[in-house]
Amino acid sequence: MSFWEYLGSQHEQLLTDAYQHVSVVFQCMVVATVIGVLIAVVTYGSEWSGNLATTTTATILTVPALALIGLLIPIVGLGVPPTVIALTLYGLLPVVRNAIVGLRGVDPSLVDAATGIGMSRSARLLRIELPLAWPPILTGIRVSTQMLMGIAAIAAYASGPGLGNVIFRGLASLGSANALNQVLAGTLGIIVLALLFDAAYVLIGRLTIPRGIRA
């Protein structure tokens, strides 16, 4: 069976796996973004705490994905829970680092002016600092998403959702008729989804970042 014939015969299952892959990556990125930005907001004002936050999230990223998922299985079981926890943890570093850089890069004179007109700390943060820090934060989100698209495939080791299941089935049956087709379909599917995610982020950037800031 050729690759295209395999796609034609298995397109429904592949689409289901692709949807699950996109869903778990998207949901984990939302959680990682919220947690990462909150960490940055709490720590960016202090050099020591900011470095601690960056170092801690960087240390998490050095743990091999297969090892982390394996360690989580006895605690939370198989399936979605270890996948979500692992992906969320891995997605933190680029978001935290870029959010801290973005918040520290806001012109202090703008913050002082906002303080001078009576803005509260939370108002300054929400209306001035975070909007101005949004471009580097979005870049961090893009980097995290690209990483998670690949890491999510390893979640199949713990019966997690996504295209990793197709790849693992192919690897487990190497030498059979469709083994290569399965590995190729899963791999190309992840690449295509990653490119679509990135295109969506480019569009979001164009819609949410003023042209002067982009320049």
Question: Describe it for me?
Answer:
This protein has 215 residues and is mostly helical. The protein has one domain: Orthogonal Bundle (MetI-like fold), CATH 1.10.3720.10. 83% of the residues lie in helices and 0% in strands. It is built from 10 helices and no strands. The chain is elongated and about 70 Å long. It is a multi-pass membrane protein. One of its GO terms (cellular component) is plasma membrane. This is Osmoprotectant transport system permease protein. InterPro entries: ABC_transp_perm/SBD, MetI-like, MetI-like_sf.
> Pairing-aware structural class of the strands and helices?
mainly alpha
The CATH homologous superfamily name equals MetI-like
Per DSSP E runs of 2 or more residues, the count of β-strands stands at: 0
Stretches where pLDDT is under 50 for at least 5 consecutive residues are none
Query: CATH topology, anyone?
Result: MetI-like fold
Write down the domain tally. Answer: 1
Layout of SSEs?
Blueprint: H1 3-43, H2 47-62, H3 65-76, H4 80-90, H5 92-104, H6 108-116, H7 121-154, H8 164-172, H9 179-208, H10 211-214
Transmembrane segments: 21-45, 65-93, 148-171, 183-204
Membrane topology: Multi-pass membrane protein
Domain ABC transmembrane type-1: 18-201
